Amino acid sequence: MKRVVRLVVLLVVVVLAIAALRIWPSIRAAQGGQEPVYDPVPPALPEGLGEGGAVALLVFSKTNGFRHEEAIPACERSVREIAARRGWQVFATENGAVFDDALLARFRVVVANNATGDNWSGPQREAFRRFIEAGGGFVGVHGAAGTRYRFWDWYTDELLHGRFIGHPIFPQLQTARVVVEDPTHPAMAGLGASFEHEDEWYSFEESARAPGVRVLATLDESSYTPRDWRSLAMGDHPIVWSHCLRGGRVFYSALGHGAATYERPEHARMLEGAIAWAAGLEGACEAP
């Protein structure tokens, strides 16, 4: 009997060791343990993209950090389905050199599809910032804010308004109650007063609630266990919000770790409303 127990324990240890080795590169990247790779040569954009008043979306999913292997293609499919219904154009890439003044001018909205880590060289950062401040839209999805290490204060503090500190580990995915705080925003239309959702729930260094930020939805922390090796409770826990950054419109939602999220009609409606708002097609850019 003891021999069987020892064999079972050994098997468990081996399985855990193999799993750790497989995910270690992603963990190391997420902690900033490897040098970021920047793209020097931009992609070729399709002819006619963004011309004649067409709404063109740049779906960007580069990862110099943890990579959401299942969520990235699921999110892109969802955005393409939305765009097909609305008559919008989509260009998806993981090439950071697309962040160039002339190229970005052809897009209405950047959708950061679980893009994690330091993805932009100095000139690319400045082009990104100019695009937003000149009136461009930004829709960040889940991993767009899911990087612990500090690499660009403008991105985390001014664009996102959120410094990620962690998410629950045991268990990683939990069902929680999301409370809709601002049902008048186009992204929140039709979601009701609250809804239940299973996800990997991000916590942040401090609440995104601040002057100029519209908190659209919060987490009911009593409906799940906000811990990793420490408490991740925030008290006031915004999970979806928007704000106006000079001339630009910025939306962020922490929902979307798993591929199944993007198959939910309610999530697709939220994403569609967020993109329409960020593009300036629906709703005003107002502070709360």
Strand order, largest beta sheet: 3-1-4-6-13-12-11-8-9
Q: Tell the overall outline.
A: globular
Structural class comes to: alpha/beta
- pLDDT average, as an integer? 92
Total helical elements: 6
The proportion of residues forming helix, as a percent range, comes to: 25-40%
Q: Runs with pLDDT <50, length 5+?
A: none
- SSE arrangement, N to C: HEEHEHEEHEHEEEEEEEH
The N- to C-terminal Cα distance equals 66 Å
- As a percent range, the share of strand residues is 15-25%
The oligomeric state is: single chain
Profile the largest sheet: 9 strands, mixed
Radius of gyration: 20 Å
Number of strands: 13
Task: Note down, in words, how this protein is organized.
The chain starts with a helix and ends in a 10-residue tail after the last helix. With 288 residues, the chain is α/β, with parallel strands linked by helices. Helix content is 29%, strand content 22%. The strands form three sheets. It has a nine-stranded mixed β-sheet, with helices on both faces. Strands 2-5 form a two-stranded parallel sheet. Strands 7-10 form a two-stranded antiparallel ribbon. The protein is built from six helices and 13 strands. 43% of the residues are buried. The longest helix is centred in the first third of the chain and has 29 residues. A hairpin with a 2-residue loop joins β12 and β13.
